[in-house]
Amino acid sequence: MAEKRIVRVAAVQIAPDLSSREGTVERVVNAITEAAGKGAKLVVFPETFVPWYPYFSFCFPPMATGAEHLRLYENAVAVPSPATEAVSAAARRHGVVVALGVNERDHGTLYNTQLLFDADGSLKLRRRKITPTFHERMIWGQGDGSGLTVVDTAVGRVGALACWEHYNPLARYALMAQHEEIHVAQFPGSLVGPIFADQIEVTIRHHALESGSFVVNATGWLTEEQIASIQPDEKLQRGLRGGCMTAIVSPEGAHVVPPLTEGEGILVADLDMGLVLKRKRMMDSVGHYARPELLSLQLDNRRQAPMRSLADPADLSFGDERDEADAADRDGDRGTDQRVAVLRRAPR
């Protein structure tokens, strides 16, 4: 019998500092310290927690959001930067894996980015949400398939998706096919209302069942004072309440501990990693329960860029060497053309 492996994890539901990036990073570092003190080896924070989720974009028309959008740019996170170094140092100091959602600034564009730091402080995963949702499309650019990657960490194989990416079955299947053991889910929280929390619960429990992995989900929290500072209109403030479902779910689709839906707190649970195999023995969605000859996924996991240099000038061949290379290419093309012609003349 294999030795039983238990991993203690923590899902953090706290409020950001809406006044500064540094203030929110300080709250992240303090929460890492607290969770590590409880024995956690994986600590998960909400979606775009640093500096804060762009709540303003949900409850104001676009023409009224310019100043707040620019303030988000000013407080966004570059990777690497002092903000990421502070989180990396905390992960290394406490020997924990940290999953953190940030607003990443890359020159003139913001991205909804998930960062995963290993227990030695190294950045194992930096992925961008592939499709921002509804109001978010005015805020963030789109990520690419390079982030649909499962990585090996001190706590096992970890994959991550943000918010409504969980409604994309192919994105989830890409992580399943890479045999994730722990899935990190991140949602904003304090948004839409109670129906959002219900939807989150259905989504993460289903992914746990379908993937045969544990799901650790973190949602954010806003205080009443913060809600009033974001949206003074009391009628519109209801859109900034509810929607919290910080939870830890087993591969069998059950809550490991009761979820946290109100207030600040840190949810802690022990994961019996043997349950992954127990679930997959019955239903392995990318193994004995798959039918790849009928249904399969094609993933373009190349990192996309607006410009690609086809060759460095220093690598270009000149003179006779270039002429010889061109002649060889032409000969190869003629040979291919002849083979194609032969195949076309072959009797049916």
From TrEMBL:
Start-end of Basic and acidic residues biased regions: 325-337
SUPFAM superfamilies on file: Carbon-nitrogen hydrolase
InterPro entries, A to Z: C-N_Hydrolase (IPR003010), C-N_Hydrolase_sf (IPR036526), Nitrilase (IPR023919), Nitrilase/CN_hydratase_CS (IPR000132), Nitrilases_CHs (IPR044149)
Region of interest (Disordered), ranges: 308-348
Domain CN hydrolase: 7-273
Top-rank lineage group of the source organism: Bacteria
Molecular function terms, GO-annotated: nitrilase activity
CDD domains: nitrilases_CHs
Signal peptide bounds: none
Stated family: Belongs to the carbon-nitrogen hydrolase superfamily. Nitrilase family.
Official protein name in the record: Aliphatic nitrilase
